[in-house]
Automatic annotation (TrEMBL):
Keywords: FAD, Flavoprotein, Oxidoreductase
InterPro entries linked to this entry: CO_DH_flav_C, CO_DH_flav_C_dom_sf, Diverse_Substr_Oxidored, FAD-bd_PCMH, FAD-bd_PCMH-like_sf, FAD-bd_PCMH_sub2, Mopterin_DH_FAD-bd
Pfam families in UniProt: CO_deh_flav_C (PF03450), FAD_binding_5 (PF00941)
Lineage per the UniProt record: Bacteria, Pseudomonadati, Pseudomonadota, Alphaproteobacteria, Hyphomicrobiales
Molecular-function GO term, any one: FAD binding
Domain FAD-binding PCMH-type: 1-175
Parts forming coiled coils: none
Protein's name in the database: FAD-binding molybdopterin dehydrogenase
Length: 285
C-alpha cells in the first residue's frame, strides 16, 4: 500500500476503514474523483487527505443472481450499464448508468461516488436505486451495517468516522422498470428532473405494485408514495398516469439552480413520468 501525507492507496476494505478511522474525519474516500476534480470550479476546498479505494478488488465486483444484484461501490457507470443490459427489472438502473453525464465521465464515475456525494442533487443512479428498493452496505470500525438507501441518504452527512460504502444490494423481482431524465442540453449536462419507475402487473395487466422515485427536483431524491398508491389497481395507462402526476406534483418543492428554477423542475416532472411509462410499455411491445 502506497501513501503520502495527503493520499493513501488502500489495499483492502479493512485497510481503508482503518486509515479513515485513524485520520478521524480529515480523510475522504476517493475512487473515480469526477466530483472532486471539479471542486475548484464550485469554489469548494479539497479534503485534508484522501484514501484511494479504486484498487480494492472486492469493491469492483458485480454479482447478479435470481434473487439480487450486488454492486461494488467502485463499479463505474459504464461497467454497470453493460452488466445490467437486457434485465427488465433492473432497466431503470441500467438506463441511469448508461445516460448519466457523458461517456468520459461514465468510464470513471463510480456507483459509490454517485450515492455519497450529498451535495449533488442531480445524481442519476439515486432515484433509479430508490425505485428498486436498494439497500447499501457500510463497513466501519464497528463492523458491517446494512441500511435502506433512503435512510442512508438522510445520514450520509454524519456517518460514523471510518465508515466506507462498500456494496449496493438490489433485490430482483418480476417487475419492469424505466428511467427518464431531462437535461437542458443533450451532452454533459446535469438533468433538470429525473423520474424512475418500477411496476409489477398481474396477468390481466393490472398494476399490483408501483415504486416511483424523483431526483434532481429537490435537494435529495425521494420516493413518490401518493403516485405509487394511485397507480395500484389500474392498468398501465400513460395518459391517465400523466394526469395523476400533474395533480400530485405540487407535493414537491423544486430547488432553484443555475440550470433551472425550482418551479420548472416541478412543471416538467409529469412529462418525465409519462416518458418512463412509455419506456415500460415499449419493453413489452
Amino acid at each position: 500500500m502506497a501513501h503520502a501525507d495527503n493520499l493513501y492507496i488502500a489495499a483492502s476494505v479493512a485497510d481503508a476503514v482503518a486509515v479513515l478511522a485513524d485520520r478521524a474525519g480529515t480523510a475522504t474516500p476517493l475512487a473515480g474523483a469526477t466530483w472532486v476534480m471539479r471542486a475548484p470550479l464550485r469554489r469548494e476546498p479539497l479534503a485534508h487527505s484522501y484514501v484511494a479505494i479504486s484498487q480494492i478488488e472486492a469493491l469492483q465486483r458485480i454479482d447478479i443472481s435470481e434473487d439480487e444484484a450486488v454492486i461494488g461501490s467502485c463499479v463505474t457507470h459504464a461497467r454497470l450499464a453493460e452488466a445490467l443490459a437486457g434485465r427488465g427489472d433492473l432497466a431503470a438502473l441500467a438506463t441511469a448508468a448508461a445516460k448519466s453525464a457523458n461517456p468520459a465521465v461514465r468510464q470513471a464515475a463510480t456507483v459509490g461516488g454517485n450515492l455519497c456525494t450529498a451535495d449533488f442533487a442531480a445524481a442519476d443512479l439515486v432515484p433509479a436505486l430508490l425505485c428498486l428498493d436498494a439497500a447499501v452496505e457500510l463497513e466501519g470500525p464497528g463492523g458491517l451495517q446494512r441500511l435502506p438507501l433512503q435512510e442512508f441518504l438522510s445520514l450520509r452527512h454524519a456517518l460514523p468516522v471510518g465508515s466506507l460504502l462498500c456494496r449496493i444490494v438490489v433485490p430482483r423481482s418480476a417487475a419492469r422498470s424505466a428511467h427518464a431524465r431531462l437535461p437542458l442540453r443533450k451532452a454533459g449536462d446535469y438533468p433538470v428532473a429525473i423520474a424512475s419507475l418500477s411496476i409489477e402487473q398481474d396477468d390481466k395487466g393490472i398494476v399490483t405494485r408501483a415504486a416511483v422515485a424523483v431526483g434532481s427536483v429537490e435537494p435529495v431524491a425521494r420516493r413518490w408514495p401518493s403516485l405509487e398508491t394511485a397507480l395500484v389497481g389500474r392498468p398501465l395507462n400513460t395518459a391517465w398516469i400523466g394526469v395523476q402526476a400533474e395533480r400530485l406534483a405540487e407535493e414537491f418543492t423544486g430547488r432553484d439552480g443555475i440550470e433551472a428554477p425550482g418551479w420548472y423542475r416541478v412543471k416538467v416532472l409529469p412529462t418525465l413520468v409519462r416518458r418512463a411509462v412509455e419506456a415500460l410499455s415499449a419493453q413489452t411491445a
